[in-house]
Amino acid sequence: MERRPHRLAALRASLVDSGFDALLVTSLPNIRYLTGFTGSAALLVVPAGEPPVLLTDYRYQAQVADEVGEHASVRIEPVSLWAGLREVLPAIADGERMAFESAHLLHGDFERFADFGGRWQWRGGVGLVEALRERKDPGELQRIRDAVRMAESALARTIREVHVGLTERQVAGILEHHLRDEGSDAPPFETIVASGARSALPHARPSSRELRREEFLLIDFGASYEGYCSDITRTFALQSVNAEMQELHDIVREATLSASAGVRAGMRGRDADAIARDYIEGRGYGELFGHSLGHGIGLEVHESPRLARTADAPLGPGAVVTIEPGIYRPGWGGVRIEDDVYLAEEGPVVLTSFPRELMVVG
Amino acid sequence: MERRPHRLAALRASLVDSGFDALLVTSLPNIRYLTGFTGSAALLVVPAGEPPVLLTDYRYQAQVADEVGEHASVRIEPVSLWAGLREVLPAIADGERMAFESAHLLHGDFERFADFGGRWQWRGGVGLVEALRERKDPGELQRIRDAVRMAESALARTIREVHVGLTERQVAGILEHHLRDEGSDAPPFETIVASGARSALPHARPSSRELRREEFLLIDFGASYEGYCSDITRTFALQSVNAEMQELHDIVREATLSASAGVRAGMRGRDADAIARDYIEGRGYGELFGHSLGHGIGLEVHESPRLARTADAPLGPGAVVTIEPGIYRPGWGGVRIEDDVYLAEEGPVVLTSFPRELMVVG
Questions:
Q1: Chain A partners within 8 Å of B102 (Cβ)
Q2: How does pLDDT run across A81-90, given as a tens digit for each residue?
Q3: Which of A84, A240, A285, B122 has the fewest CB atoms below 10 angstroms from its CB?
Q4: Structural domains of chain A ordered from first start
Q5: CB–CB of A122/A19 below 8 Å?
């Protein structure tokens, strides 16, 4: 992971800029980004002027050495990570101005700082690592491309097996099996397979409902490769399409295509959102598009930046974002079409290539 | 969900006992337990003397009404759940002594309380809902039994298809496909499939390593049914068994069986842990059993109580716990055998029935 020293150096520079002597990292994706460690329990201290220290437990003794290498010195804590942190802090941080991750630290853990002694001044730092993560380097972009490819191959294999009478849950099983065979790790978020009226629920779980003719089948899912994820949605017609299905799908498709083509690094998140929203509103369906346009993806399926009505921040160059407008008619059905887009300096690069036309399956 | 009014009444009684006027619930499993809501974004206020109020967002508008019914009044928040909370608090809570969930509230969200005005006194409450959740009622126990049955059926189907040359990841794909077909929702935790030397990593992710003859194949996974989960581990031999494999497996099997038979409601978690640990230590492998014996399962795969060397609390009657000793020889391989056990008042009831003998597969 050739970029890790660069990331740590950038974080140290940002600590100095913000007047901190060290950062306590409690977000596991942030720890993975900085050190390569993939385990489920860790604390990381990054001093502004010294090598970082990673604390984990017995279960990860063997893998942590392989994963972290030279990027941090590692301690295996026999009792608790927090007891270890208290012990190790005086030796590794020269100063006393300590930042912590306010958005990734439980209140109950925050209260432990009181036991650490009066020397330390703890202050919540917001998004120091997240800001670095927004811009993807070539290795990260390649992993996201790989995760997109795995997802699209698995989807192509799945729709050949879909037929009326299967349950949503069975379709999820087929899809997730293909994802594993394509080389994906566990899905980065809960696969959505929703048919008929359930496709109008933006976050439906696959149920025992059977697929029926002339209904929508909405599939929203992702692959995960070396920690990086893809996030794709397509909406299919089962066996037959009626005029209303075609109309809704056409509108959403046009909204996705125009937003994917129009989104730019530097644009505010709200302006990206408006590209799709204004179009859908113009077609008279604005009230049925109740969620935001998209979000960043990378080591997490929801990360910076946000593409939403309330997002004033500019979209960072090098981010990968989803573009996922939808129209949901309660009790009848819904359509969402979601692509993943890389915001290169020179313009948007759409990473997904699965057809966006309304395909009839089953 | 006939038990919900009872749960809310029990929580209110515990609020009164603890001197609180209301509890802000931020843990999603706790919200599900109290109201039935299964979405991924919610806040719940439970006043000691009035009906609870659930706040969620647009995405769950349709499902929340179905799920929650009479158990809470529901608000769909257009901007943010926290803005909604600030608005609604004065109307729903008479007093000012507010409890929050210190173990389930991010520091950054805790800081929002400062904007709510000086009337409220916020104090961290620890485990008020978790304490109720430890004792499973008949409906919960039945759902866990269903999740055990789904997991065991899927495992039985999977091992018939396992063969040397498949990758760990492919085995995970087969297993998770069968889980869906058995009626399971998404796995409650990341499926572990580890072969050969990787079986010595207690938390290995399924990799592209191919299964080989005369090695262990360790599978640790669960099913999820109506929110409740199972958590099972079996370790198989691929094609052939040597003496060392048989010896390690025999020791772990005996440790699992004796702990499952000996665990009792009312016993301290550390004493349950000691049943298996003392046996493994007596056989000379104590240093290779580095993790704790088990944990409660229910709406979460790790919940109260803990069965560990450091667990002084007694195991509550009606809890369902895992019993999962293991021996891990670094660079060679490991064995873990895990059962799920219901702690009835009259003694332990082992819910898992998949054979524990060392089976040769592949």
A1: 106-108, 111
A2: 999 999 988 8
A3: A240
A4: 4-133 (3.40.350.10), 138-361 (3.90.230.10)
A5: no
